[in-house]
Specification:
Layout (H helix, E strand, L loop, with lengths): L1 E2 L11 H27 L8 E4 L3 E7 L2 E7 L11 E2 L13 H20 L5 E3 L2 E6 L5 E6 L2 E3 L12 H11 L4 H6 L9
Length: 192
């Protein structure tokens, strides 16, 4: 699937940069998901569900004598592919309508909390959405795409980086769950 920004770039030379920021965000989120899965696996709250991020690539197309960039992602496949929004990049957390969804939502918010804790508050992965699928070994996977990363005090990770305001909004509504507890995640104090 080729994805493009709805709004064309103000400066054509900056088109590639916009996509590279998105690719960096996805790569960083994927690294943290691997860390989260590994750490959680070694706790008393180990989950059979793994978090994984779909990795995008940069496509360069020559169109009408010019160059255009797009993001290239694998297409979600399956009979019942339904995109689910677990959290956004502010304070939304999906209401769970089943025990299975409760587990998935708990994993999503624990992952966000984990990223903040692991980086000592440098950044936080948010805006989690994707599909339910199985990996090549038949394991249950939350395959996520298009995350946002808040990075307080740094202009990094694009326009969805709400910096400290995004971090504060998350912790204002977050209630630690069994995954947060099992991972020993710290809750930042108001002074942090």
């Amino acid at each position: 699937v080729l994805k493009q920004y709805i709004k064309p770039p103000l400066e054509v030379t900056l088109d590639r940069s916009r996509y590279m920021v998105d690719l960096e965000t996805q790569a960083v989120a994927a690294f943290f998901a691997d860390c989260f899965n590994e750490r959680l696996r070694r706790t008393t709250a180990a989950s059979p569900i793994r978090l994984k991020f779909l990795m995008a690539k940069l496509a360069r197309l020559e169109v009408d004598g010019g160059v255009r960039f797009l993001a290239l992602e694998k297409m979600f496949r399956g009979d019942k592919v339904t995109m689910l929004k677990y959290t956004n990049n502010y304070s939304f957390v999906r209401a769970s309508d089943s025990d299975e969804m409760e587990v998935r939502c708990a994993l999503a918010v624990a992952f966000t909390h984990f990223t903040h804790d692991l980086t000592n508050g440098y950044c936080m992965v948010t805006d989690l959405q994707g599909i339910e699928t199985n990996d090549s070994k038949g394991r249950d996977v939350m395959l996520l795409t298009d995350p946002a990363i808040h990075c307080p005090g740094a202009l990094r990770f694009g326009k969805t980086n709400m910096q400290q305001a995004g971090v504060d909004a998350f912790f204002k509504v977050h209630k630690c769950n069994k995954y947060c507890t099992a991972l020993g995640l710290r809750v930042p104090s108001r002074e942090d």
